[in-house]
Amino acid sequence: MRRLAIAALAGPLALARGAPAKAGLLVFLIILLTAITQIGGLVLWFCVPVCVWLNNRLGDRGPALRGSACLGLLASAYLGASVATIPLASAFGRAPLDCGLTGAATYEPRTIWTCLLNRHYVTLPARQALQKVSAELYADFKGPWVTYLDAGFPFFDWFPMFPHISHGDGRRIDLALVHMGDAATPSPIGYWGFVQPRPGDPQPCSGREGWLRWNMAWLQPLLPEIELDVRRTAALLGALAQDREVRRILIEPHLQRRLGVDHPGIRFQGCRAARHDDHIHVEFEAN
Ligand SMILES: [Zn+2]
């Protein structure tokens, strides 16, 4: 029993002597999963010794079966941990945004992966504010179209959410721009399908772009051309700006001008951060 507990705590480090390359790869995967999902790395850490034990039990029944058993174990443990995270996160003042599975919400994620990766947690006031704004717009425009991208992780204000500079404290939600027709966004994840500035538009970062300002020029020709729905995006921006729970909104100046919405809470993020003409970054008040 004691040996089992030590093996579980040691995770991939127990393999370091016999299979150092495998142990190194597993540590890399644990760091990667932690960066992407927060809890996934911990799940993998504890799954490694169980997987080693499982492989020993299966003996020489073939690598495909042994690999499938380990992947099944990891997927089940991750899903279980994600479900258990929901009540645990409330102790940290976080709640999950609606994942759009029931059809009852007035907003939804752009991709279900946002929920599967646990990147949809926010503070309760932030969730209430998004619910309120999206419900108003749902009534005005007859349909659910407020779509969120990354929000926050379930635990710890200090934990960074790659690749965002902020988003650690659960008070920030990225919302997709609204496009014409039923098409959600040009990019399947919502990010990087930019609305390009038109001739004469303000371009304050021209010639002095920071390394975090990714233009993703190689990706743009691969994405479908879908026209921006100026009316609905402007309604979304205006409703957010008017909401008392919203502290500030980040968007590119050329997009703000095109939308025709002016408010002191709407700001430009500067040239050292990511572009904000593929999404709207919304920061809520700390309550
Ligand atoms: Zn953001």
Outline the structure in words.
The structure is a single chain. With about 290 residues, this protein is of the alpha/beta class. The chain has 2 domains: about 90 residues, no CATH class; about 190 residues, Muramoyl-pentapeptide Carboxypeptidase, domain 2 (2-Layer Sandwich), CATH 3.30.1380. It is about 40% helix and about 10% strand. It has 8 helices and 8 strands. Strands 5-8-6-7 form a 4-stranded mixed β-sheet. Strand 6, helix 8 and strand 7 form a beta-alpha-beta unit. Helix 2 runs antiparallel to helix 3 and helix 3 runs antiparallel to helix 4. The longest helix has 28 residues. The radius of gyration is 22 Å and the shape is elongated. The protein starts with a helix and ends with a strand. About 35% of the residues are buried. The model has no long low-confidence stretch (mean pLDDT about 90). The chain binds zinc ion. The site of zinc ion has 5 residues, from strand 5.
